[in-house]
Amino acid sequence: MRIYPHGFALRTTLVYAAAAALWITFSDWAVLLLVQDVPAAARLSIYKGWAFVAVTSLLLYGVLQQWMARLKRQLDEQAKIEVELRQWADAFNHCAHGIAIGIPATNRLLACNPAFAAMHGFTVAEMNGRDVLTLYVPSDWEHVRRNVAIADRDGRVQFQANRVRKDGSVFTVQVDLVSVRDANEALLYRVTTVQDVTERNRAEAQRRESEDRFRAVVENIHEVFWIHDPSHIRIVYVSPAFEKIWGRPCAEVVNWDSETWLQTLHADDRERLRRVVQGGTPEGYDEQYRILRPDGTERWVHDRSFPVKDGAGRVVRIVGVAQDITERKQLESQFLRAQRLEAIGTLAGGVAHDLNNILAPMLMAAGLLKENITNEHDREMLSMVERSARRGADIIRQLLTFSRGVEGSRLALQIRHLVREMMGIMRETFPREITLIDQTKGELWPVVADATQLHQVLVNLCVNARDAMPHGGTLAISAVNVEFVAGDAQLPHDAPPGSYVMLSVKDTGVGMTPEIMERIFDPFFTTKDLGRGTGLGLSTVLGIVRSHGGFVNVSSEAGKGSDFRVYLPASRAEVAEPAAEPAEPLPLGHGELILVVDDEEPIRDATRHVLVKQNYRVVTATDGKEAVTAFLDQRDNVQLLLTDMMMPQMGGAALIRALRLLNPQLKVIATSGLDSHAGDGELAELGLSDILPKPCGPKALIESIQRALMRN
């Protein structure tokens, strides 16, 4: 656009001059031809001249007016363009990103802004005219050429490359390259916008490294790390430990909503956790709950969540850690069970004391009466009473040992004795719908074992068999001698070949599926209803058998029953069979005075009768205080103290210490309804001649007194 058209003035002047000359020349000739009167012609010429001036002035005014308006428009447009150019120049020069314009034909810089020059360590003047390719590291040249070709073809391309500063240092740039063409598609310029992304890339690399480290941690810990999106109410991530704990693939849980997750929880915990989740828990939660795996197994989980907030305090993510605490819960259960057993043991101790006090006079009286009765039938009846009392005492002793968790000594014993005892217990306690069969026959090899523990094995197996037959059936116990050689199919790889005694407990109950059989020895695994089993019975059986060097084999079929076979190493040791009591009469005393102290009147009376009958003198007392008084009355005559250890007011130990102060040489025999080995240290300190378990018969009592009195 021309703002000052120099040819316009010349053309206007020439047109005006030509028009005026023609007008003057031809108008004057016309006047002379038309008007002959000279004065009139003169006047007409004047009028003609004024008319010419007026017309030409108007025409000139119009032309000049149009020209001035056009000139003003051109000046305004020029000013606007100059403002825009200044703005673009300011933007170009002050842009934080480097901008450069290159000439495609020479591949050199036409212009660049200060940021572009400073980025490379040059001034603008130093940059202009430089070969663009030399700004890049040589190893990136081919990469740059490929992207330039893309820009020339498509009009634009973005890429990253490494450039070199004036001092030789290398930095990474993000390049936005635009190829500019004219209306004829001819390539005019290449405009490059460059941003230094060295720090950004370094930060991104550090972030990725941090993410990789974090991912390596969360994907290798035993706990489940999870992320929840509260805006979409979806789980967006779970760590691989989820598969181990929940038993489900991680891909399955991603995008689960809360309700779907809640369905994996135990029904008894589901509603509680639903209230927790729906309540929002702005500060997170700390909960323990049970989950059900697809295979039906139950696991305990400790789950903690934490909110992640943005700068405005809005919760954008909820993260959490879920830990499998099943083993901890099992240990807690074992601890509580141990506490219950301890409480039962304490209770059993008191019950055992009371029951033994009941059985003691029965045993004493039966022994006394047998000596005075000659009728064989009556003597047999008394023997039955005596055997029953002893059996009751043995059962109480076993209960006390088991409830206290005391491991008895391992001795050579016969399995058939345990089976016979177990059959007797089952006949008295098991439902009548269950038929009991003892198939133990022949001479069995001895086994070296803890009788109490083997009794526990039998009890657990038989109780399980009973529970497997709720509507009745057959329970058979058998035992046989077995010889194994290396390679036998029934011999486990870790069991040595040799001689074993096999004890079998077989039932016709509901049986087991192969899936259940794989887990029956797992602690706390049970198929019984809640409250009917702890899941520790068979694991206890396996532990006891293995501790004796044996092993357990099981065969079962659903609907047809089960057969548990316990193999125990045989021993060549001799079994101590119970000896028959001699028929000789009990030895008589020589009138020695014995102080008998017991808070149970029947025991005092029965003991007094036995001692008097055997020619002993007797003084009785109901407790320690009364015994001290009685001893003071007869201190020079009392030769032996027979005292119960558990009495009100003043116990046996306190009584013994008190009387020893009065007579250090006093012989003392203690009786106790508890374990005779309990408190061995204290009993040794008391210097007892003997300690008799309650109940005891006349023979054991008299023999103990004889031994004590014969000692110096």
UniProtKB/TrEMBL annotation:
GO molecular function: ATP binding; phosphorelay sensor kinase activity
One GO cellular component term: plasma membrane
Annotated catalysed reactions: ATP + protein L-histidine = ADP + protein N-phospho-L-histidine
InterPro entries xrefs: CheY-like_superfamily, HATPase_C_sf, HATPase_dom, His_kinase_dom, HisK_dim/P_dom, HisK_dim/P_sf, PAC, PAS
Compartments where located: Cell inner membrane
Occurrences of domain PAC (ranges): 157-209, 285-337
One Pfam family in the UniProt entry: HATPase_c
Keyword Metal-binding: no
Residue numbers of 4-aspartylphosphate PTMs: 644
Name assigned to this protein: histidine kinase
UniProt lineage: Bacteria, Pseudomonadati, Verrucomicrobiota, Opitutia, Opitutales
